[in-house]
Structures
1.
Amino acid sequence: MAIEAILRAGRAAIDELHRRLAERGHPDVRPAHGYAFQAIGADGTTASALGERLNVTKQAAGQMVDELTRLGYVTREPDPADGRRRLVQLTPRGVDCLRASADVFEEIVAEWRARGDDVDAAVAALTGLTDLYGGALRPIW
């Protein structure tokens, strides 16, 4: 039952995040997109490096970049340091989505705290679970 509770809580938080993101103008973003936004970062990256950071194939990373480009969250531009490469960068829409995600997560944690639950103890316990088994953040397709 403990594992089921952990998985259900994680899923509920992600579902709520995406419900609120839709309300804030990002109805088309999926959970995997958030991982990509984090991996792209403020300085941008190449599709190959994105694949490495997400632990997915170059093809999967390329497909993700194509989708995010179509949705207006990223651009592909020539890399000023190496004209043979294309740099993937967040657009203002991508940055807005990333900021909105951070705001929503803060709201969710504040609501959790308002219930009177010991959020810090829960986070410490979950961190212990991560320490025990590892837990790199990467998308689950």
2.
Amino acid sequence: MTHNKKAFYHRPKTNQSRSPMIRWTFVTLGWVFFILGIIGILLPVMPTAPFILLAAGCWARSSRRFHFWLINHKYFGKYVRDWEENHAVPLYAKWLATIMMAISTAMLFYRLPADMTWAAWLVALVCSGVAVYLFRLPNAK
């Protein structure tokens, strides 16, 4: 005797705007951020997670269909759900982000001319702040 198991889908938490113009703006921004996140998978100097989370936030305010699709996505869904439910980030993602920021900042110090070193220090300061913020968040399970 076999029985069908229904797939468990997470229901999106949405806060949709009533304005069609605002909804279309958020839908468009969601796709821009999602595409940037996909590019981040291919380019090591570009992050993926922040863009996917931004896409989820935009779609939560504009499109139940796209938000539902993303929170149940095979690869990105768990990360989006962890963020939406607990503001949690996996420990390996925190370390990966911090290492990538450190490498990118080091490359700035190496590549920028001496009179532009201030920009590298500014980036280093921002990246340090982001790393501190990341490690203060709970770890996703």
